[in-house]
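QUALITY CONTROL LOG
STEP: pairwise intake check
CHECKER ROLE: data steward
CRITERIA: each record must contain a sequence immediately followed by its structure tokens, with no blank fields

ENTRY 1 OF 2
RESULT FIELD BELOW
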Amino acid sequence: MRSEADVAFRIEGEDRKGRWLVTCDHASNRVPGWVNGGDLGIPAEDMARHIAWDVGAAGVASQLGRRLDSPVILSDFSRLVIDPNRGEDDPTLVMQLYDGTIIPANRHIGPEGVEERLDRLYRPYHAAYARLAALRPDRVIVAVHSFTPCLRGRAPRPWHVGVLYSHLDERFSKPLIARLMAETDLCIGDNEPYSGHLPGDAIDRHALRLGRHNTLIEVRNDLIGTAEHQAHWAARLAPILTEVLEGL
């Protein structure tokens, strides 16, 4: 039987020697059985789309960790259960409505219900994240996410890859954007499709507050729908990340 910590996250390659820590905050769309019987009350097709997880991001993160010879941590619960990329006091920590879909199991959740999800999922994930990050004093965090090509009722998003960062630390992300923009076949988002500064999020908590080099990479999810495509993007990004870090 897996321990309680095991159902909150997965770690790959903890003993790898690389400087990076690859993270995937929205790796899974799993709803634990103790959360409303394992069902948030929305259709399976909604649980399969971006509102429940970052489609394809886990595969990219896993492959990227192998290529960078560095550990990977992946969440093992849906962002709709509780979002590990939000601060504990963020009003979007447990979403009740997302991209036009009402989340029935979250509509009437109270403080005790939120606290249980924090204790059983969110906090174990962040404790493991912090432990892995601290294994090297020169750790660099690269967070892997994905974004949908189009939100309901919104304009299509043209970017293949977005690089997100906070204005509080642009040291790694700005050179990374410049390097990616040299790839003439790519449309690169500079803090697109949304800003990378969110107080209390995972990068803020584990990188900004501790002065660690960091970046957040968003890949458009229609580009990473298969294991082959995920491996392709990891193979493309790994040498670019390494090159940028060596140039700092």
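ENTRY 2 OF 2
RESULT FIELD BELOW
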Amino acid sequence: MVKKRWIVERSIAWMTFQRRLNRDYELLPDTTEAWVIFTFIRLMIRRLAQLPVQAAA
């Protein structure tokens, strides 16, 4: 249970690095939702780019 809580807390902390999500600038909830999705897509692309490329056998 604690591990899942930690994952959620870290995810929210990563979102605060996105300047647009750090403050509530948006008027519509849909816009904020889109920025949250964009933030996590960006985070996953960065993580995937760091993975070492395995040579084909």
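INTAKE CHECK: passed for both entries
DESCRIPTIVE NOTE, ENTRY 2: The chain has a mean pLDDT of 81.
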